[in-house]
Structure formats: structure tokens, C-alpha cells
Task: structure prediction
Amino acid sequence: MALPPGPTASGLVNTARFSLRPLETLLGWQRRYGNVFTTKFLVFGTGVYVAEPAAIKALFTGDQSDLHAGEANAPLSGVLGERSVLVLDGPEHLRQRKLLLPPFQGAALSGMRPMIQAVAEAEVGRWEVGSELVMRERMRVLTFEVICRAVFGVYEPERIERLRIALLAVVDTQSLFFMPEVLLRGRARYTPGGWLNRRLDAADRLLYEEIGRRREAEDLDQRDDVLSLLLRARDEQGRPMTDVELRDELMTMLMAGHETTSTGLAFAIDLLLHNPTVLDRLRDELDGGDDEYLDAVVSETLRIRPVIDATERTLKAPRTVAGWELPEGIRVYPGIALVHHREDLYPEPGRFRPERFIEEGAQSYTWLPFGGGIRRCIGAGLAQAEMAEVLRAVLSAVELDPVRPEPDPVVLRGITLVPRHGARVRVRSRRPAAELREPAGAAQLN
Ligand code: HEM
Result:
């Protein structure tokens, strides 16, 4: 079966190019080969990128029995666990997904906003005038705290700190996750396996401790954090989640939701500071009490800088995709970044122009930062609410200057696109209105 044409370089060369300049590399291939092309990567092998909305819709919403997404995430199961929604496929995936979705929707989601505001105001309240800050690092601290509170339901500062040390030690070993499994099995000192497994043991002890504490909590029925809702949830057969399932999903939500959101925020601040007209309009709209433009800024950030450049589906049977007969076993990448940069869908695609989300109605399957269908990101609502609330808190409290004259180049870290220098800013001043406000949401933080 002929595959769509694509770059002919070796997997090593393609991987190196993609890692150093992911966006430029992908867009370069798209210019040369069109909206469907084949490429080879180290570890992942041969795959086909697709940047046709109709074909992506078919992949996301069509019959899923021959499409696997969990399989490609299998290397993550050592850390996320075998019961993680990210590594499962078929009915087992659906069971976990149905249990996980409700805590991120409707009233449960809107209930998280005041807490996010309080955490964001407290963080920005600590920024000193004249200091230089790396936004991606500050936002990591912030989004970790939001996950602790919203998902784990942990509010006590010392418990959050213990979790931060233990869990981030695991998150920071990401470079090991895609090593051959055999190297990670061992526990001997000074080996990758020993290093990773000791960190995992420490993190798991704390996670199981939190699950145990919550099970016993007298106010479990009144609590609205995700862990408490999951402890009360039952599947279609009336079964509750086991401790192992709960542990695996807590780790998954942390891994999937913490760095992605902080990176999205770092990109947003970097783009705003390098586009003063957009920044001024956003400030005006926020001062006037209108959130439409704020939401458009979040959408446009995730369009022009999607944190995940593509999702992945492995074909378990031959399938026609965008007019190509593709063989069983091949990986197909619905190309989020590629669709987001199509000139015919987003005129002047390289321009940061949030207005486009207000003036022009979005066509279906053209805005895909959270993937789609039965694998669509469970935390999409939380991530967007968090980005909006944090931007509001930052802009109303401080004036920032970018340290670098140009927006940060985009590079690959693990599987995410990130700003190469982390989006560095200098705090120019505090905004007068902020000084009059309550000190950093203190009432809700303790
Ligand atoms: C800006 C922030 C975020 C981005 C860009 C993002 C992006 C994505 C993408 C592209 C997928 C794969 C979808 C697919 O394969 O079609 C995904 C899946 C997922 N995300 Fe997110 N995500 C973000 C934040 C979060 C948050 C805050 C959470 C939870 C606290 C979360 C939890 C998950 C989970 C559990 C899945 C797996 C869903 C499944 O397989 O059914 N994500 N995310």
C-alpha cells in the first residue's frame, strides 16, 4: 500500500529537526507535501500526519473499534499505571472516562473558579517590582496548587508542599518515560529504573495516604473536589473505583493537566507582552467587565501555540483516511498545529489576533487544542477557566515587560511544545487598583 509522500530523511534526522524546531518543521513539511504526509520518527516509527478537518472528524467520531489511542501511550503506563484512562482503549477506557468526566463539568467546574482566582492572586501578590521571573516556572507552581486543591482536594499548605516535592520528582523524570521498559524495571542504585522507581514509591505512598484519608473523611458527602466525587462515583454496574484506579487517575490528571496548562499560560503571557495592541484591548475589556475578549485570547493562544502538536491514533485494521488507504498498524496523527496554521482556515495564521474568534464563526474541527471525540481532553474546561482566571489576576495586578525582544521560539520538551526560555518577564510596577483590593484572596486560601 502506498503511503502519502513526505520527508525522506531518516527517523533520526526527522526527530532531531522536530525536537529543535517543532512548529517550523511541521509547517515546512506541510508546505512541501500538503495536508496529508508520512514521516518517520525514532521510537514512534512511521506515521501519517493529517490536517484535513473532515478526515480528523471521521477519526475522532467514527467507529473507534479499530482505532487505538491508549496503545501509543503504553510507555507511560509504568508511571501512570495500567488503569490510567490515557493508556486504556475500548470498553475499559470508556468506563474510566465516564467516571472521570462529571467532576470537570457544569456546576463542579464553575465551583472551581473562585479557588483558582484566589490561588492566582496569592501567586501574583508575591511578585516583587523589579524582579525577573520565568513565567513557565511561576505558572507550574500555580497550576500544581490548583490541581492539588481542585483534583486532590488538598488545601493544607504543608500537605501541598509534601505532594509537590514527591510528585514533581516524578514529573521531572519525563525524559525516562520513553526508555525501553527493561531499563526501567530494575531497582538497583544509580540505574534509571532505581532512580525512577524510588521516586514513584515515595509519590505513591502519599497518593494512597490521601485516598485513604479521604475515604475516611466525615465530610466526604459534602466535598466537591474531584477525588471526593470519584470516591462517590459508581459505574454502570454500580461498582466504585478501586484504590489502584484512583491512584492511576490522580497521577494521570497531574501529568496531563499540570504542565500543559502552565505552558499554555506562559505562551499567553509571552504573546500578550509582544502584542501591545492586543494587551491594551484585553485590559480595556476586562476593566469594562466583559470576558468575551479574554476567552478569545485563550482560544487564540491555544490555536497559535498548541501545547500538544498532534494527537495519535493507531489503526488496528486498514482504513481510508483523507482518501488514502492506510495499512493496519500505522500511526495516524490528527495534526492540531497543522490545522491551526492553515491559511485558508485562519487568514494570516502567524498573527496573534484573538478577534478572529469573535468576528468569524469557527468551522467544525478546525480548533483542536484538546483533541476530540471519545478521547477529548477531560480537563479542557478546567484548563480554559484556569487560563482565563490567571490572566485576569495577572493583568489586573501588575505591569510586566518582556525580557526578550521577540516572542520565545517554540521547542519540544517531552511531548509538549514549550517556549524555549520559559517566557521571561520583568515586573515593571503594580497596578494601583490592585493595591486597593483584598490581600491576595487570603480568606479563601486558609
Ligand atoms: C492547556 C491545557 C491542556 C491541553 C492543551 C490538553 C490537551 C490534551 C490533548 C490534546 C489530549 C488528547 C486528546 C485526544 O487524543 O484526542 C488530552 C487528553 C487528556 N487530558 Fe488534557 N490538556 C490540557 C489540560 C488538562 C487538564 C487540566 C487535565 C485534568 C486535570 C487534563 C486531563 C486529560 C486526560 C485525563 C486526558 C485523556 C482523555 C482520554 O484519553 O479519554 N488535561 N489533553
